[in-house]
Amino acid sequence: MELWVLWLVIAGLLLISEIVFQWVWTLCLAIGCLAAMAAALADVSFLVQIVSLSAVSVVAYILLIPVLNRWQEKARRRNRNKSRTGMDALLGRVATVTNEIRPGNWGVRESTATAGRYASPAAMTSSATAKKLWLQATTA
């Protein structure tokens, strides 16, 4: 097997792991592997291929981190309310009460996002609409 094919396979595996795990360094190593593949295609020694892998990976990391941080910050500002997760995502959502909830007792509600168990400070009848109930657990 030609060495450039090995560099291409390693770069592909690193790109797959980047997609799955979203580790920036795997993307930088994949870029370095592509540089090592180019060096292998130029028929240089294995040492030069390793040096090109290392140098290009470090340069890619130095160049990509600030760009990706700015991109992530813009996305965070643009989607401030949309990108909330966990219990924060449930705050302010409208839910339909499926069973009567008496003060201090548990009730079950359904919304478009998730179902959960809630306690209400006031009695609520079935099919009532509630907003911002106190969350005890995130699953029913």
Lay out the secondary structure.
Blueprint: H1 3-21, H2 24-41, H3 46-78, H4 86-90, E1 94-97, E2 106-110, E3 115-119, E4 129-131, E5 134-137
Antiparallel strand pairs: 1-2, 1-4, 2-3, 3-5
Explain the overall architecture.
By secondary structure, this protein is α+β, with helices and mostly antiparallel strands. Helices cover 54% and strands 15% of the residues. It has a five-stranded antiparallel beta sheet, with no helix packed on it. A hairpin with a 4-residue loop joins strand 2 (106-110) and strand 3 (115-119). Helix 1 packs antiparallel against helix 2 (24-41) and helix 2 (24-41) packs antiparallel against helix 3. The longest helix is centred in the middle third of the chain and has 33 residues, at 46-78. The protein starts with a helix and ends with a strand.
In brief, what are we looking at here?
The protein is α+β, with helices and mostly antiparallel strands. It has helices spanning 3-21, 24-41, 46-78, 86-90, and strands at residues 94-97, 106-110, 115-119, 129-131, 134-137. It is 54% helix and 15% strand.
